[in-house]
């Protein structure tokens, strides 16, 4: 499986920050281009500036493309992936289950069901404990298992 284009979705939340870090790490590992998308329903003047700061914070080691889209997040993420030949989508998850997920919906779940490529769902817990309590909780550790399973 060749991974040359990775898409990560951000809503600028803590969950999304963890997903961006995991996606960036994968982009470095695979020598891939990282696409960062923010989908929204209405105009948010500060979005371009926030995406630029996020891109700059990742450094120069990985080519980064930023994009915004108007509409539902899951639909726009999968549409972008199809239109840009994305090989892997990375999304953060809130870990909701049961009634709260049914009421609020799950962007990650909808992306997983409709994506044209593999999706890596990164839970907030993937960030691990604070460094003072670190016990080798690397964000991409679980995803290595996903890639191993995909290659079987």
Overview of this protein structure:
With 152 residues, the chain is α/β, with parallel strands linked by helices. The chain has a single domain, classed as Rossmann fold. The chain is 43% helix and 20% strand. The chain has helices spanning 14-30, 47-57, 73-83, 98-104, 107-114, 141-151, and strands at 5-9, 33-40, 64-70, 88-93, 119-123. The chain has a five-stranded parallel beta sheet, with helices on both faces. The protein starts with a strand and ends with a helix.
How are the elements arranged and paired?
Blueprint: E1 5-9, H1 14-30, E2 33-40, H2 47-57, E3 64-70, H3 73-83, E4 88-93, H4 98-104, H5 107-114, E5 119-123, H6 141-151
Parallel strand pairs: 1-2, 1-4, 2-3, 4-5
Coarse structural class: alpha/beta
Q: Give the ordered list of helices and strands.
A: EHEHEHEHHEH
- Molecular shape: globular
The gyration radius over C-alpha positions equals 15 Å
Question: What is the fourth-level CATH superfamily?
Answer: HUPs
Distance between the termini: 11 Å
CATH topology: Rossmann fold
Question: Into which percent range does the helicity of residues fall?
Answer: 40-55%
What count of domains describes the coordinates?
A: 1
Question: If strands are numbered along the chain, what order do they take across the biggest sheet?
Answer: 3-2-1-4-5
The total strand number stands at 5
């Amino acid at each position: 499986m060749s991974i040359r284009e990775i898409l990560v979705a951000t809503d600028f939340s803590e969950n999304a920050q963890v997903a961006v870090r995991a996606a960036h790490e994968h982009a470095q590992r695979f020598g891939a281009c990282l696409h960062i998308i923010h989908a929204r329903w209405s105009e948010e003047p500060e979005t371009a500036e926030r995406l630029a700061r996020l891109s700059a914070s990742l450094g120069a080691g990985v080519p980064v493309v930023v994009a915004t889209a108007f509409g539902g997040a899951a639909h726009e993420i999968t549409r972008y992936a199809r239109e840009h030949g994305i090989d892997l989508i990375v999304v953060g998850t809130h870990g909701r289950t049961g009634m709260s997920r049914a009421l609020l919906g799950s962007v990650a779940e909808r992306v997983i069901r409709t994506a044209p490529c593999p999706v890596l769902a990164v839970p907030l817990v993937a960030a691990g404990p604070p460094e003072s309590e670190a016990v080798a909780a690397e964000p991409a550790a679980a995803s290595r298992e996903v890639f191993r399973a995909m290659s079987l």
